[in-house]
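Structure (tokenized):
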């Protein structure tokens, strides 16, 4: 039983660290955000709300520069000020902004934030277990912790890409139902690297937390084909 104690402790540590991180994030979001009040965007968000049989879809403006959208563990959806400025400057359309919100609503509806808490704890335990097992392997032992961390990072990236594909599929269905359509979703993906400055990123594909743009668009088109049958 004692030999499993480090793994159990890793599970508990992972859970505690995730909750602490989520708490810090919630406090920062509360301090740096307010409800997004834009008449043009409100019309697009109401189309999403009607498709979901909701009175409205509430979106908050997160006052930071990077271009991003996010779903908090408490279910609130945020658009960064940097992203909103892209809309104000005409680089992003209202429909494309709605596609971002639809994607984040997907993360909320599919429970990805809660699942990530479980995944994070499990990955921490897996890293500990791998490091314990590999340290007795000849030649590998001294590098056990680095190998275990790399293997766990691969798993984390794969799980994150899975969540992104699921949220994309949810957004596609919601955009289709709302009448906004999926063209805005695909056109935004085509702009994404320019908007975020991600051109020339050296991260290998298997370590990336988000799927490649062409893979995401292809997955959307597969769903479109199903709806046309």
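Design, position by position:
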């Amino acid at each position: 039983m004692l030999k499993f104690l480090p793994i159990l402790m890793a599970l508990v540590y992972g859970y505690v660290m995730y909750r602490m991180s989520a708490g810090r994030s919630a406090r920062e979001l509360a301090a740096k955000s307010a409800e997004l009040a834009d008449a043009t965007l409100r019309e697009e968000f109401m189309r999403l709300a009607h498709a979901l049989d909701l009175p409205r879809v509430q979106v908050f403006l997160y006052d930071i520069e990077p271009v991003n959208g996010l779903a908090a563990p408490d279910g609130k959806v945020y658009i960064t000020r940097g992203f909103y400025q892209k809309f104000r400057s005409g680089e992003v359309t209202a429909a494309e902004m709605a596609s971002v919100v639809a994607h984040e609503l997907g993360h909320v509806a599919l429970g990805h934030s809660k699942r990530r808490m479980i995944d994070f704890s499990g990955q921490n335990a897996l890293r500990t277990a791998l490091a314990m097992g590999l340290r007795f392997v000849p030649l590998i032992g001294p590098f056990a912790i680095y190998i275990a961390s790399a293997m766990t990072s691969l798993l984390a990236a794969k799980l994150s890409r899975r969540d992104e594909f699921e949220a994309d599929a949810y957004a596609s269905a919601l955009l289709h139902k709302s009448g906004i359509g999926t063209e805005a979703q695909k056109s935004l993906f085509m702009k994404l690297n320019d908007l975020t400055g991600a051109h020339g990123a050296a991260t290998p594909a298997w370590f990336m937390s988000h799927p490649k743009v062409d893979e995401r668009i292809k997955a959307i088109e597969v769903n479109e084909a199903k709806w046309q049958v």
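Reviewer-requested clarification: Residues 202-207 have pLDDT under 50 and may be disordered. Residues 144-178 form the longest helix (35 residues).
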